[in-house]
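Pilot study result, target chain (395 residues):
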Amino acid sequence: MLISKIKKLTADYFSETIKYREHIHANPELSFEEFETSKYIQAQLNNWNIPYQIMGTTGVVVLLTGTQATSDKVIALRADIDALPIQEISDKAYQSTVNGVMHACGHDVHTASLLTTIKILNECKNDFAGSIKFIFQPAEEKLPGGASILIKEGVLENPKPLRIIGQHVMPLIESGKVGFRKGKYMASTDELFFTVKGKGGHGAMPHLNIDPVLISAQIIIALQQVVSRVADPKTPSVLSIGKVIANGATNVIPNEVKMEGTFRTLDEKWRAEAKIKIQEIAQGIAKSMGGSCDIEIKNGYPYLINDEETTDITRLAAEEYLGKENVVDLDIWMAAEDFAYYSQIIPACFYRLGTRNEAKGITASVHTPNFDIDEHALSIGPGLMAYAAIKHLSA
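Predicted structure:
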């Protein structure tokens, strides 16, 4: 039986999968700088005599074709390989050796898992017809996103995949389980940069100044109207200002204030309208108070949508592989992912691999300095991806 075969191979390679993950975790590299990570991936493929292509400078793409019968079907599997600018807090032997950089979002897990998936499927060539494209993608964490770059370089062409599947860790889900959601799943993301200008001076003489701190405070409060009073209540939206720099003093009103924030939603039409509204509110308030506001909006990733049929097939594969009791439903997630670029072009499924283990104290969220996973998840991830890929090729 195919599931039994894949589970045995996954178990046989489990210690190697852990080795891949811990090596990558200990040697993290930031977005667009994944040179050694890319070489490490290439080294494993060379050891297995599996050819590959380099894309996006550090991206690695593999095409594996089954021998069961002739088929032009192609399924793509994707893992991201970059780390984050976070100082790790850990006493583990595999903790980051790079100051200020760590794998705080599980990309080490994704990469290690996909390496083992390749090894499994390479031994299962006689069990499927068609081809599987494996994408080790750089720079998920930084605009413009490695996915957009690889797409421009043709990663979804020659041959063109029918569907693409992505797997991502989820510390809110218990290790041993996976989660799915059909339809809109993750938010678009745009970065907001404000420079609020006024006229600085002594804090004891506010009547002689145009206070950009006060103007900024009014802008921050007023911008919440974009979500609470302008957006359709049925459309999830988030507007957050996370950074405010005034650089005055207890008795000094500065000339300007810098602010940075993010806007996220799940509707592209509203996304465009909201950015116009953000500018109108900020500039209007600044002008009414005697100042001005320069705004730069950096367009980020689109929203991520999970194709219904692709998600149904992948979920069924998970239920067959793990049992229905280990497959859970996901809610909308307002974080962003550059996998969304793929989902806007071809049918996609982005699902979650549970990594939580409260008994072991493994509960920290992604993007935090003490993030870690229950490595038991790596006894599930590679085999599930392998089985799901074959399931799609036979659908």
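One observation from the pilot: The longest helix spans residues 268-288. A full batch analysis is planned for the follow-on phase.
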